[in-house]
Amino acid sequence: MTTCFIDLTDTGYEVSTLVDLLGYRSQNQPDQRAYTFLDGETEADQITYRELERQAQAIASQLQSLNATGSRALLLYPPGLEFIAAFFGCLYAGVVAVPAYPPRRNQKMSRLQAIVASSQATVALTTTSLLGYIENRLTDEPELAQLRWLSTDNIASDQAQSWQQPQVNRDTLAFIQYTSGSTGTPKGVMISHGNLLHNSALIHKSFGDTPNSRGISWLPPYHDMGLIGGVLQPLYVGAPMVLMSAVMFVQKPLRWLQAISDCKATTSGGPNFAYDLCIRKINPEQRASLDLSSWEVAFTGAEPVRAETLEQFAATFADCGFRREAFHPCYGMAETTLIVSGGLRNAPPVICQVDGTALERNQVVTATGKQEITRTLVGCGQSLLDQKIVIVDPESLTPCPPNQVGEIWISGASVARGYWNRPEETKQAFHAYLADMAGSPFLRTGDLGFLQDGELFITGRIKDVIIIRGQNHYPQDIELTVEKSHPALRAGCGAAFAVEVKRQERLVIVQEVQRSYLRKLNVNEVVESIRKAVAAEHALQVYATVLVKTSSIPKTSSGKIQRHACRAGFIMGSLNVVEDWSENPQNKAKFIHLQADIESMLQKLSTAKQL
Predict the structure, then answer these.
(1) DSSP 8-state code for residue 556
(2) In the prediction, which pLDDT does 547 show?
(3) Which residues make beta-bridge pairs with 388?
(4) Which of 101, 400, 545, 581 is the least buried, fewest Cβ under 10 Å from its Cβ?
């Protein structure tokens, strides 16, 4: 593996783990504010590097006294800085952290149970207030009741004195990132200290941040983009970071941009939907108070990056000082720690227009303006430092020519060690070889794309591609067409997928309705608008359209549509339906009942095999 860490040659300080990194910051920048947490618009908490290390050592000492070194610890925290202290407390104790979303009130704990069972966690860390709520529910959750629960916000700081340096190195497992799964069940990705430092170096190369940079993040720290991009990257660079909760942002998107304006932030970002939300929810009077001229890196990733969103956001906030060149599309995933590709600071996004019909045949043909269907794709940057990207034919396992769409394969020191306790899936995904079996193994991402002059373009996921009459259709393209077809439909809240009807693949649309339209919805008008738009743009007939309630469509923690979950909900009849339409209602009912019986039978067979 190539060492690609912070250059501290002149200091004589060796950094090969995150414990070394925080120790270096604490020693050399002890009183510098590391993180600030905003509760709405108000500063609620802050912590310096020295305070953070002391808290981490105190928590680690407590864990060491429980003989937890080498075990897994579940981290359940409300928004705030306590999560960061607990995360580093695990690292300082040689305990593998397992971040997870804290349960909402009246929410089932099935996901937490699955994570605990998979990770074999023995300890759970949380706050005093959240522990009180969880304890009231433990009688109904026997798997969680078996954990040793520890509230870390009341651990005395003088316990740091009994902390012992753990035996950790770059190959030591730092944490397990449970993916939320846009196409499958959650899996635990094993991330080492070396993975984290290498990926931080890639982000540093792409973003070009310095100790003088200033960051703002509302991304949840339980998710890879929020943890690595929002918490660990500023530590790597030695730059201050201001954090706020995702709920505060979603409730009032102005808070995000106002924080950037007030703090003169240079680096901030999020998924495509975040920029869409700002366009829709921030009015001209509110925009007049914003100064976004300091914003140099507006990264966007975690879901398809849409050229239309970039253009609209840049135009909407141009008077606030926002520059289009600040947009920084990137691509990554938990299996590669975080980032795979990204542009360079101040380089404008690369936009590519291709022939949509050719793209359906996995061919990349530059659009000339004469084609009936044109697809606009946003480049996600280039491979960074020593990381390698290859576009591979998923059937022949040979590299694709430049004008062909294939599966994206990755090789490099950021690629994780595999899936926790899933050796077969680890072998299939993380130990892939090209047909000639030469060179190092690759990670198979399951994503489709192509390289053009070194720029990576993402076209979809293998499992999500809709194949109708031999033609490939990318669901995100259809979903964009649908959401733009009528004002009653919510942007970024639709799913397109195929079901088999009479031995033919047919298109189904599941789409959320705007809350303000629920009482006055003209279903026939909306369905007709969807059908006409899809037919015009994609030459496809819609077999069934399901309009569902606001905020009910299944999504991952990073905002990606869970198309397989939507399809399962359609088949099982479990979607939160406002109204639905089908080309043939009687056939649809028979189809749903038949598929539900099949799904039930398969589930029983799977359970029987496990037993």
Answers:
(1) -
(2) 95
(3) 411
(4) 101
Rounded to whole angstroms, the Cα distance separating 106 from 272 reads 30
Query: Do residues 302 and 219 lie in contact, with contact meaning Cβ atoms separated by under 8 Å?
Result: no
Task: Provide DSSP, 470-511.
Answer: TEEE-HHHHHHHHHTS-TTEEEEEEEEEEEEETTEEEEEEEE
DSSP annotation of 404 reads B
Residue type, 91: L
Between CA 182 and CA 554 the distance in angstroms is 9
> Per the confidence metrics, is the pTM higher than 0.70?
yes
CA 124 to chain centre: 24
**DSSP track, 254-318:** HHHHHHHHHHT-SEEEE-HHHHHHHHHH--HHHHTT---TT--EEEE-SS---HHHHHHHHHHTG
Rounded to whole angstroms, the Cα distance separating 406 from 255 reads: 40
- Give residue 558's pLDDT band: very low, low, confident or very high (50, 70, 90): low
Q: Which pair of tokens denotes residue 245? A: 């909760």
> pLDDT tens, 220-235?
998 889 999 999 999 9
pLDDT digits (tens, 9 = 90+) for 425-435: 999 999 999 99
Tokens of 318: 């141009």
Query: CA-based angle 497:503:506, to the nearest 5?
Result: 25
Contact 189, 419 (CB under 8 A): yes
Cα of first residue to Cα of last residue in the chain, in angstroms, is 41
Q: Which stretch of DSSP H or E encloses residue 561? A: none
SS3 sequence of 321-365: CCCHHHEEEEEECHHHCCEEEECCCCCCCCEEEEEHHHHCCCECC
Mean pLDDT of the chain: 89
Residue the block writes with tokens 């433990």: 138
Q: In this predicted structure, what is the pLDDT of residue 235?
A: 97
Average pLDDT of the residues in 363-392: 89
Q: Half-sphere exposure of residue 426, counting CA atoms within 13 Å on the CB side?
A: 12
What average pLDDT score do residues 571-593 get?
A: 73
Q: What are phi and psi of 493, to 5 degrees?
A: -135, 45
pLDDT over 90, % of the chain: 66
Query: Which whole number is the average pLDDT over 62-71?
Result: 96
Both tokens of 358, joined, read: 């050719």
- pLDDT score at 304: 79
> From residue 63, how far is each of 69, 88, 122, 254 by CA, in Å?
7, 12, 11, 40
With left for phi above 0 and alpha for psi between -120 and 50, is residue 440 left, alpha or beta?
A: beta
d(C-alpha 400, C-alpha 589), whole Å:
43
Which residue in the block uniquely carries the two structure tokens 């576009």?
Answer: 391
**Residue linked to tokens 């198309």:** 563
User: What is the per-residue pLDDT for 606?
Assistant: 40
CA distance 323 to 307: 15
- How sure is the predictor about 337, in pLDDT bands with cuts at 50, 70 and 90? very high
Instruction: Determine the Cα–Cα distance for residues 598 and 576; give it in Å rounded to an integer.
Output: 22
List of residues 6+ apart from 547 with CB closer than 8 A = 511, 512, 513, 521, 523, 526, 527, 577, 578, 579, 580
CA distances from 80 to 36, 46, 98, 150 (A): 9, 9, 17, 17
